[in-house]
Design a protein that fits this description.
Order of helices and strands: HHEHHHHHHHHEHEHEEHHEEHEE
Number of strands: 9
Strand content: 15-25%
Radius of gyration: 27 Å
Structural class: alpha/beta
């Protein structure tokens, strides 16, 4: 009797083994050949591959970057160079920046502050080369005015080297943010780290096109676009900060640029009429839209962009990438591109292609459908 029971148990065990093997083979078959799973695995925009312990989106604040011990020391040296005309302080600051830019602030303010030091230490002929670009010269003049009053103020505010009456108020925060954005946007060395020219070449701009430069700041991309679309084109420099737009207007008047129009918005829409532009462009902005806005605000903002585009118009999103731990990071806000792609698909945009000229920054191309 016991032998019969053991025999039946063995048969049941073998049956379960066989069924398990068959089920496993069937599951592998479905995963490998089922169109839905194949599409899911190959459609990288619908999921994010985690390659590090970092968050897939990080917005941060103005004080969360470039305030390390070495960064503060370099800032103090730049300030001493400006205030006391000490060349050795400028040289020491340059040496620190050479050391910390690769590991701390790739693409940030460090390279701009280093540029000021190198310019002031250069001979007269070399100084002319530094300022050969009229927009770089205007950037320099903005900060050099009244014995570098704005640059000194920024360094003091950023690194808390002096107490300001408004520093704990929203007015003070706005002032610091304005100066910081100005330095980051119009950094004379932006091309070196961002490969700006490659970003612009990828847009394939044509004379006569109309472009919305959303979050234009003091006009870094605005004026580059202006030159490419020509007199028959139109650039809308759109921003929430009137001081940035004032600067754009001043340069437009100074250099006789007639195809740029500034648009002040509250940030809930881009402030343009329907079917007005061929291309909408935003750089280092969407991480804020995605990470800090309510669903209602995102709906209004994105739909206003879509509404402003002409038929088959394109939306370009340039933002900071999430990179592997082994790669040089972008020390600033970033967002995994897959989040943007998936969200904009749900707003009715077709994802066309993407570019990455440096690991830290990507260019996403969408089309209105």
């Amino acid at each position: 009797m016991s032998q019969i029971i053991r025999s039946r148990k063995t048969e049941r065990t073998l049956l379960w083994v066989v069924l398990t093997i068959v089920a496993a083979i069937f599951a592998v078959f479905l995963y490998t050949f089922n169109p839905w799973t194949t599409q899911w695995r190959n459609h990288s925009s619908d999921w994010v591959q985690i390659t590090s312990k970092k968050s897939i989106i990080h917005v941060g604040s103005n004080d969360s970057f470039a305030t390390t011990q070495d960064g503060i020391m370099a800032g103090k040296l730049v300030l001493d160079f400006l205030e006391n005309k000490q060349p050795d302080s400028g040289k020491a600051a340059i040496e620190i920046y050479n050391r910390i830019i690769p590991r701390e602030n790739y693409g940030g303010e460090y390279s701009a502050l280093q540029w000021f030091c190198e310019y002031l230490l250069a001979g007269e002929k070399d100084k002319q080369k530094y300022l050969s670009d009229k927009f770089v010269a205007s950037f320099y003049d903005f900060f050099a005015e009244k014995n570098f009053a704005r640059l000194k103020e920024y360094i003091k505010r950023k690194y808390k080297l002096e107490t300001f009456a408004d520093q704990d108020t929203q007015v003070g925060e706005n002032r610091k943010a304005f100066l910081e954005d100005f330095i980051l946007f119009n950094n004379p060395r932006r091309e070196e780290w961002e490969k700006t020219s490659k970003v612009i070449n990828s847009l394939n701009l044509k004379p006569g096109q109309s472009i919305a430069d959303i979050g234009s700041g003091p006009g870094y991309y605005t004026f580059k676009f202006s030159q490419l679309v020509g007199k028959k084109g139109r650039i809308f420099a759109i921003d929430t900060v009137q001081k940035h737009l004032n600067y754009v207007n001043q340069l437009s008047q100074k250099y006789g640029i007639n195809n740029v129009k500034t648009v002040k918005t509250g940030g809930d829409t881009i402030g343009l009429d329907a079917n007005q532009v061929d291309l909408a462009f935003m750089c280092s902005l969407y991480h804020n839209i995605y990470g800090m806005s309510t669903d209602y605000d995102i709906d209004n903002f994105v739909n206003s962009i879509k509404n402003s585009l002409k038929k088959n118009g394109k939306l370009i999103v340039v933002d900071n990438g999430l990179v592997k731990d082994s790669e040089l990071p972008y020390h600033g806000p970033y967002i995994a591109k897959e989040l943007i792609i998936a969200q904009l698909k749900n707003y009715g945009f077709k994802f066309v292609k993407d570019y990455a000229f440096i690991p830290q920054r990507y260019v996403l191309v969408f089309q209105k459908i």
